[in-house]
Write a structure and sequence with these properties.
2 copies of one chain form a homodimer. The first copy, chain A, is an alpha/beta fold. Chain A has a single domain, classed as Rossmann fold (3-Layer(aba) Sandwich), CATH 3.40.50. Helix content of chain A is about 45%, strand content about 10%. Chain A contains 14 helices and 8 strands. An 8-stranded mixed β-sheet of chain A has the order 1-8-7-6-5-2-3-4, sandwiched between helices. In chain A, strand 6 (about 240-245), helix 9 (about 250-260) and strand 7 form a beta-alpha-beta unit. In chain A, helix 3 (about 80-90) crosses helix 14. The first copy, chain A, is globular and about 50 Å long. In chain A, about 65% of the residues are buried. The interface of A and B includes residues 110, 142 and 149 of A. Strand 4 (about 110) of chain A pairs antiparallel with strand 4 of chain B, so a sheet runs across the interface.
Chain lengths: ~350, ~350
């Protein structure tokens, strides 16, 4: 484990992982991911629209259902959902998948939010309707009140290709100087393109604003606001929270903060070492809220027999589907690094053999 | 608490209610409920199609969303979801709503099963496609594996108007001599009509059969088979189970038994005193599996200041939405009869005042 920021506070929150834990993985699409060059979370820009559903299917039943194979980058590097699945199964953590607006309905049991919708391209300045943004927040909150109330620790993760761009949009829309601070699943972060897309949308909107739902409506997406609502409901129940993800989690924190949710001592950002190496996540989180710790899972694929996994060490993929945060929770619950690695290898082998 | 059958075994299972409990409430529709005289779970036969969604909405957020008011019988007697909601909230039990095929999508976060479908009238002999029946079972099972695996006790309930008729259909379809053994939400059980409807369907089918999916496909509905799948997945995780309902739970038990799920020492039927008084539930359960205990929640509305609730004592409504079994779990967790009654009265008042 790497305690990147506020170790003592992080340890306090993580101690809850030994008790009742619940995982919630939010999926959704934004057409922003179809802008060539924005997202590598799919073999082609069009295929990125299927990635959230297929990530969920794989997480749930160990194989893709809506497509032939699990999501891969254009280079063929597999989804981080491999890590998440291995972590969940090694530690027996119960979990749900929540559909905030997946382009295709996942072919597994999943929580459907009534306001779910696919987000429009962020450069339009009209990502989702304002009422939908508010609805998703409230529905996320209601869901957490219903399901998270007996958990001591809740993990929330996401699968939304194009999500670092919409996260940037949300942060900019709320007036944060976040240009250049978001990460990427590609080894070469297309920051100039992301900036151009968000700036285009910004021009067409009335942002920035202090209203998080306006920021989401203009430059956001359906997923981050649903997660922020779920966070709000979870905090109400008294459960602690791991925001499992990279720089996108700053957008979730920002939405929650601007709706008045207390964060200090309750929430931390849990990510991967690869993500930490790629970005200044700590600065970004501090920019939103200086009281939120950052922890990274120390998984190391450099000795892996599989090239697809060794690519993670070269800056490909890095994080997603709550991989880092779920790995952290599994480790606190007693899964060793070696066992987690072994399970990930098993998953990888099984998938490559098409079993 | 009334230990109607196998007290020692029941106490053993119920002791798990002090630990981690999860509630799962399955909703779905069958057009059987629109046959005049079959169901009183709605003000009119047509309105029964909305009852499952509105029950779920009320359970989740305390008010109806898809209709103006909560489900009532033609006489205006309110849904047993009042009891369920009071029991869940008094004891902090987390829960989910699972849509197996509601006529309208509930306007709250809910688990959607990919194979969800509204059932056709049972007298057609073609209630749901065979593959759908199998799909719902598998999806229920997968859901339980994902979400129930940290629970020590799981409660499953249902809202499906016309459900006693389809339950009868499933039992007859599997070759059980269940004619006349199912209960009703009406004080005068329309048994002759139920028999006619099921016999009509039976004639048009190739039943009886030992294959539970054939029985469900011919004379069943989407809900009971989903619950049986969820039961199967829950048993796998090691969690104990309360089948929260009346005679319909015999259909769930029968489907599970015919797919080879071990039931003894793991599952009990939890119901209400009103239901026990109305039917020979114990004989019916014994007919399916002599090792499954039956327990009833001893709620008493005879001293209630509200006529709508006092009607329960006259044989109206009796059970539904897992009311009895959820009440039992709440009581084992420390909710007193007095407190539960007080909360139910609060709910009733609030609803009558339209708050």
């Amino acid at each position: 484990m790497i305690y990147a920021y506020k170790e003592d506070e992080a340890r306090k929150i993580l101690s809850a992982a030994k008790g009742r834990v619940l995982g919630a993985y939010f999926i959704g699409s934004t057409k922003t991911s179809t802008i060539p060059g924005i997202s590598v979370a799919g073999a082609t820009p069009e295929l990125t629209l299927y990635t959230p559903a297929v990530d969920a299917e794989y997480l749930f039943c160990g194989r893709p259902l809506s497509t032939d194979r699990i999501p891969v980058t254009p280079e063929g590097i597999p989804t981080p959902a491999l890590i998440t699945r291995a972590a969940l199964n090694s530690s027996g953590i119960p979990f749900i998948v929540v559909d905030s607006g997946s382009y295709v309905e996942p072919r597994i049991p999943h929580v459907a939010l009534p306001s779910r919708t696919v987000g429009e391209r962020v450069d339009s300045g009209e990502a989702i309707p304002y009422d939908v943004a508010k609805g998703l927040f409230e529905e996320g909150k209601a869901l957490a009140r219903g399901i998270a109330r007996s958990a001591e620790l809740t993990i929330i993760g996401e699968s939304i290709p194009g999500g670092t761009t919409t996260a940037l949009g949300i942060l900019i829309g709320l007036g944060y100087e976040a240009w250049g601070l978001v990460s990427s699943a590609a080894p070469k972060n297309p920051l100039a393109l992301k900036r151009r897309v968000v700036e285009e949308g910004l021009k067409r909107s009335k942002l920035p604003s202090d209203d998080p739902f306006e920021a989401v409506a203009g430059l956001g997406d359906p997923v981050h606001v649903s997660m922020a609502g779920f966070l709000a409901g979870t905090v109400e129940t008294g459960s602690r929270l791991i925001l499992a993800g990279g720089t996108q989690m700053a957008a979730v924190l920002a939405i929650a903060k601007h709706t008045g949710v207390p964060l200090e001592g309750r929430v931390l950002v849990g990510t991967t070492r690869w993500l930490l190496d790629d970005s200044d996540l700590v600065s970004l989180v501090k920019l939103i809220h200086p009281g939120v710790p950052v922890v990274a899972c120390n998984l190391d694929f450099s000795g892996s027999p599989y090239e697809g996994l060794r690519y993670y060490e070269k800056g490909y993929v890095k994080e997603g589907v709550g991989a880092g945060g779920t790995g952290i929770a599994a480790m606190v619950r007693g899964t060793t690094h070696k066992r987690l690695l072994g399970l990930i290898h098993e998953e990888y082998e099984r998938l490559m053999e098409g079993r």
